[in-house]
Amino acid sequence: MMRLHFRATGQGFPFIILHGFLGSLDNWRTVSRRLALDFKVFSLDLRNHGQSPHSEVMNYQVMAQDVLEFMDEQSLSTAILLGHSMGGKVAMQFASTWPEQVHKLIVVDIAPKAYPPTHRSVLAALHALDLKGFASFREIDAALAPVISEATARHFLLKNLSRTTNRGFRWKIALESIIKSYEELTKPVNVKQAFNGPTCFIRGGRSRYVEDDDVPLIREMFPRAEVVTIASAGHWVHADAQEEFILAVNDFLTRQ
């Protein structure tokens, strides 16, 4: 059994948040606090990420099963489920497999389709780092810069590192397992049945993850889905346009 690391805050109806690829629950700390004004928010670290256990097996079916086991542990018969990117695919997989346990579904900047393996160069760059050879985060940042030019992306990735007792570094993520399982994570969601509950897809207007051409597939699998576009945001919708994102979430939850 995979006992996922989590953080709970607030009181009220349960609201579960699932982070994206190479992320952790810490990426959702600010949004969680905002949502906790109205809900009991559970932010989870998915397997092989954050402080959750590591496993050589990683696909959307087993990650959805992890969420089911978490809900059972917490005695949650139903919850609002929100997932971003990879976490959005886990949320879709869960909703199509155990629809009775999803009160409402929110998917952030991802579609249920297959995606090209665009993260391979990033994973290779992380794998190539000899962590014993660095004395500071700044040195690691500089080593990644030739491959990952965007400073915010490097800063995000460096959150997966922690200091060791001998002043070196180690990965918190299960990097080897993630690399081996990466092809699985590019695959489409294996929809068991259409999820007929209230569903909202929130996409970034500057992101290419959810195209207009994806909407028919989304509606086929999630017949009640509405698609909300936040024009100023990229893939990290909740970070790029936090106020608009919170407004979109609350608007959906109060209307549906």
Radius of gyration: 18 Å
Overall spatial form = globular
Strand content: 15-25%
Multimerization state: single chain
Give the low-pLDDT segments.
Answer: none
The strand count comes to 9
Strand order of the largest sheet: 1-3-2-4-5-8-9
State the end-to-end CA separation.
34 Å
Brief descriptors of the model:
256 residues, alpha/beta, seven-stranded mixed β-sheet, two-stranded antiparallel ribbon, 10 helices, 9 strands
Describe this structure in words.
This protein has 256 residues and is an alpha/beta fold. The chain has helices spanning 29-35, 60-73, 86-97, 120-128, 137-144, 151-158, 175-185, 215-221, 237-240, 242-255; strands at 6-9, 13-18, 39-44, 79-84, 102-108, 161-163, 169-171, 199-204, 225-230. It has a seven-stranded mixed β-sheet with strand order 1-3-2-4-5-8-9, with helices on both faces. Strands 6-7 form a two-stranded antiparallel sheet. A hairpin with a 5-residue loop joins strand 6 and strand 7 (169-171). Helix 2 (60-73) packs across helix 3 and helix 5 crosses helix 6. It is globular, with a radius of gyration of 18 Å. The mean pLDDT is 96.
